[in-house]
């Protein structure tokens, strides 16, 4: 079961890295459409991170309830 929690944490780290990457691309471009695109990708990744954190906490509670 710990492997599942570790996998979720790894996925959260991936989402955070993606956010940083898209923010960097947002800063590098002057094109308004590209900025909007990267801004949306950052928002998407933030939402993915939040969903994963919620699942992590729920799964952690489930594991503790089984003890």
By helix and strand content, what is the structural category?
mainly alpha
Taken from the alpha-carbon principal axes, the silhouette is elongated
What's the gyration radius in Å? Answer: 16 Å
> What is the number of domains?
1
Q: How far is the first residue's CA from the last residue's CA?
A: 12 Å
Oligomeric status: single chain
- Which segments are poorly predicted (pLDDT under 50) over 5 or more consecutive residues? none
Number of strands: 0
Provide the β-strand percentage band.
Answer: under 5%
**Count of DSSP-assigned helices:** 2
How would a crystallographer describe the biggest sheet? Answer: none
Mean pLDDT: 95
The helix/strand series, from N terminus to C terminus, equals HH
Structure description:
The structure is a single chain. By secondary structure, the chain is an all-alpha fold. It has one domain. 91% of the residues lie in helices and 0% in strands. The protein is built from 2 helices and no strands. The longest helix has 34 residues, at 32-65. The two termini are 12 Å apart. The mean pLDDT is 95.
List the helices and strands and how they pair.
Blueprint: H1 2-28, H2 32-65
Helix pairs in contact: 1-2
Pfam family, one: Rubrerythrin
Protein name: Rubrerythrin
Domain Rubrerythrin diiron-binding: 10-60
């Amino acid at each position: 079961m710990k492997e599942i929690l570790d996998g979720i944490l790894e996925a959260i780290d991936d989402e955070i890295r993606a956010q940083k990457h898209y923010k960097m691309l947002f800063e590098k471009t002057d094109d308004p459409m590209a900025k909007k695109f990267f801004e949306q990708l950052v928002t998407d990744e933030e939402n993915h991170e939040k969903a994963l954190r919620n699942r992590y906490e729920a799964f952690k509670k489930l594991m503790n309830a089984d003890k």
